[in-house]
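Write out a record, focusing on structure:
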Amino acid sequence: MSAYLRLPAIIRRWQQRVRRKTQEYKYIAVITFQSLFCNAFLSPWVMWDTLMEPLLWFVEKVVKAFGPVFVFVVVSLILSVIGVAWLVFFPIMQDRGYLTLTYHLIVGNWLAMNVLFHYFKALLTSPGKPPSGDRLNTEVTTVCKKCISPKPPRTHHCSVCKCCVLKMDHHCPWLNNCVGHYNHRYFFLFCVYIFVGCCYVCYSTYDVFLDHFHNSEKYIFSGKYSLLSPLDTIQVAALQLRQPQAQDTVAPEFTYSVNQTLVQEPVTAWEKAQHNLVIYLFFLCSGAGAAVGGLAVWHARLITHGQTSIEVHINRKETKRAQKKGQVFRNPYDYGPRKNWKIFLGLTNGRSWRHVLFPSSHLPTGDGLTWHNPQDYGRRVLPV
């Protein structure tokens, strides 16, 4: 009778034991499966990087192969703007008075000098590489998986240059070079002076551009019986649509047929060339100024916060990770906006803004190997 009464308790204990063993075996099976297949090397980010590897390999090869072509294009465009300024712009300013011409000669040549100087310095200056062997006497954060060598702080591997770069920002195809510790200032000031120069050209030539743009018919019909190019044909159609359609409208000064035009006042070849060069100069500078200006603003924002283009993504990920733990991530290389700019521009050891407004080959602050943070040095994650 007593055994019969204890039977439900025995059954419950047996059920609990079976349930516990089942959970243990399930846990062991899951751990075994994860250890074999679902390790850190098969995380979503690693899988995405692996799938993108062929595309990245193709892009790297193209950037490396066409790097000299990109450099040739940039130099050609810069020299073409300078040439058009001397052939067209300065003679127009001379007609407005020698004081105006002197002003534009000083400002224009100052901008051209800074643009060319900073571009070629960014192009020819090595961004900086960590020393090898025993010469690397500094703090090391990790080991490069490509070079199999120690990496100092803020150092990253460039797959195009096939080496590690100190304080790497990015690989610029228009420079055919990496932007790093020793040429980052040259690259940024090149972008700034390109933007300022494009704004200066667009502002100074705006009235001349409008005069040529709204009087294109004078330069399109440039011979007594000249055939129209496809571009001229489109402009002629636009001009025809702009003409008044009223019956009492005075006839235009020129007439044209489908394949040929009759011009009462012929325009010389040089005047037509001037017209095309003014249009080319304004459109090139307005487009390049908008693109490079956006790039300069982006880098100015990064410099203000003591980051590079690579570190901004790393810091964003670290910020999210710290928030999940109830902590706050602080960039260990952020010294405050004012000091960040002084360090970046190298305005130390008695240097002033003269070294920014005029070409200067002074070295950046530090060696790119050691980065000290006076605010909680060595502590990246601070409790809330």
